[in-house]
Amino acid sequence: MTIPILKTSALNCFLREKHKPKSSRFCGDSSDIAEQRRSSAIAGIVRSPRGPRAEALSSSATSHDLFQSPFNFKSIMEDHRPNKRKRSALACDACRARRTKCDSQKPSCRYCRTHEIDCIYQEVPAEPPSRIEEELDAVKQRLDHIVSLIQPAPGLCMGACVADRQNNSDAIVVENNSPFDLSSKLLGNSSTLHVLGLDADFSQALIRRERANGGEFQGLVGPRMLIVPQAQAIAALAAFSARVHIWYPIFPSDFTQEYFRVLSGNLSPSSSSCLVLLVAAVGNLAQDGGQCSDAPYFETALASLPIIISECSVRSVQCFMLISLYYCCSMRPCQAQEYCLIASSKIQNIVTSELEGSDVDTIELTRRTYWGALLLENEITCQLDVAKSSIWRLDEHVPLPSCHHVWKYIPDDTPPGATSDISNGAISIDLDKGNSGSFFLSRNSNATHATPVQYRELERQLEEWYSYLPEINRFDRGDASVPLEQTNFLRVQYYCCKLSIYWPAIFQVVQDGKATPLLLDHCQIFFDSYLQVTPSILAAFHDCVAHRWTLFITIFTNTVAVMSAANTACLEEFFSDQLYQSLSVSGHADPTILQRSPSLMMLQGVLEERLLKAGLW
Hints:
Blueprint: H1 8-18, H2 22-25, H3 30-46, H4 52-60, H5 63-68, H6 70-79, H7 93-98, H8 110-115, H9 131-149, H10 158-166, H11 190-195, H12 202-211, H13 230-245, H14 255-263, H15 271-287, H16 297-301, H17 305-310, H18 314-329, H19 333-352, H20 360-381, H21 424-444, H22 452-467, H23 485-512, H24 517-543, H25 548-566, H26 577-585, H27 591-594, H28 598-613
Helix pairs in contact: 1-3, 13-15, 14-15, 15-18, 18-19, 18-20, 19-20, 21-22, 21-23, 22-23, 23-24, 23-25, 24-25, 24-26, 25-28
């Protein structure tokens, strides 16, 4: 290895001694002479006047280090190199323009302060991340993606499952601007409102109209003594069983005995008396067709409100559900929604905390109450842009209740075999669980168009639900005549789901102004479903007291959607005389019922205006 600081004379001396003949090199005491000359040569090297580098080398390195350890020598040389000029990382604009050193003082450097000029510093660009940092970020992103794909497996512990699902920020989120919303959540959907020619504030205007009509029972206190005639109590129970409980089966099979036992007592404030009085109030309201009754059942039941608020039991949940149903029958959705949210929150606490116990009957009753609250909340909130609970988070962990052996009031004179023990409410649960749940998945996507696979899958699930209907509840899909009240409402649900499935095809054609043959086939199914559902839904609006508000919303949204499609050139071939007749009939709902709700009167006014403009009114 070449050593750059060796002095020439010393090197020549060292080499001359090395190449001498052996005889001349080892005269006298050869070993001592050789060692002496080698030491002199090295001393001459180290003492050569080369400046501070050589002096540092002499003080920090020995002969053994120089010749045997070249790495140490190199490190020594690097440590004693002169420092490079350090430039200021931040200089003001004036010093940069003059190309002079800036002291980087703030708020003004020395030069700018001396010359009384503005001292402006540019922002220092952030240092780019190192390769290691970039790799770590990529690994974190991949891990987050893998974690988001992992679905929690249903376990035996409900609390653990819910805790896992709460950590998932994308649990169940409905896309507000997705077109997959007819005939549900239309009034909270800005994109669909725009296509249908409605104001973006339309939904909020409906809510404001409803809120202005609340508070009728505020401050009312029930009588100290309530005498219930037996005939009136029986009629109210029969009406509740036939027109309300059949859709929300939340009571045990022995509820009839409890009903009459509590009414025959002193009706002191308690959850039991509150429950029975609310059943009588809702049944009396259903019996009168939704008109407010003079019987003070509801006001007396409200005296127990502080008790049911403090309780965390299935019975308290049922009480809040009945208050919500009372407002549903009165066509006051905002008030119904508020009490329904309380019921949903309570039943979620019971399920997640496993407070239902280990009794088989109690567990079955808890399941019925959970699914009844879920159905009620979905029915109320599906048309309004209002607050919703997270009750859907538990639907995969709470098994469906049994369709058999549910409570139903049977008068003493009813012949055996004249009634069915199958609940239509449980059938509706199957429809919501099997079809609407999958439809929510399509709403969560950001796509504006449905795929043929989505159409086929949703249609398959709907037909599967229809195939499971008991014979007594089976309706003829090709017959537009109105069946019995209970079967008719199931028919309305069936065709409304079909309209929801094929609404994206109408949405796409109306937006684009053109259609493919496949889209035209889907539009044909949409119009055929509208023809089938129109007479049924008008009859259900008159008969189904607890669902009147949402049923008329469905009439309004479907009719406005069909009329909007009529203005699209490529869809004119589907508008026959029969379809125009159905559009005209849809505007003739019972005006005496509509007058009880200010929001429904507002919708009726818009509908009449559209029909009049089209020459169908």
